[in-house]
Amino acid sequence: MPNGLEIAKAAIEDFKKIQEYMILAKEENAEKTYAKLKDEYMSLKALLNVAGVNLTNIDKINE
Predict the structure, then answer these.
(1) Rounded to an integer, what distance in angstroms lies between the CA atom of residue 8 and that of residue 15?
(2) Residue 58's Cα: distance from chain center in Å?
(3) Are 62 and 42 within 8 A, CB to CB?
(4) pLDDT at res. 4
């Protein structure tokens, strides 16, 4: 069973990946893909905020 630190690490890695995909989708004008990724981004951002993770330095999207 993963501990809190392992869960936070996995969520941060997922958050960073989602942001990379969002940037690519925006550059390619893939609106539907961007919208779906944004849903994932917002969920991960909320989870990380609740976990007390400071997103200031890793949030490239800032939405």
Answers:
(1) 10
(2) 9
(3) no
(4) 82
Three-state SS string over 11-36 comes to: HHHHHHHHHHHHHHHHHCCCHHHHHH
Q: Helix count (H) and strand count (E) of the chain?
A: 2, 0
What does the block give as tokens for 17? 């990946």
Identify the CA nearest to 35 among candidates 17, 57, 18: 18
Pairwise CA distance, residues 36 & 53, whole Å: 23
Q: What is the pLDDT of residues 6-48, one digit of tens each?
A: 888 999 999 999 999 999 999 999 999 999 999 999 999 999 9
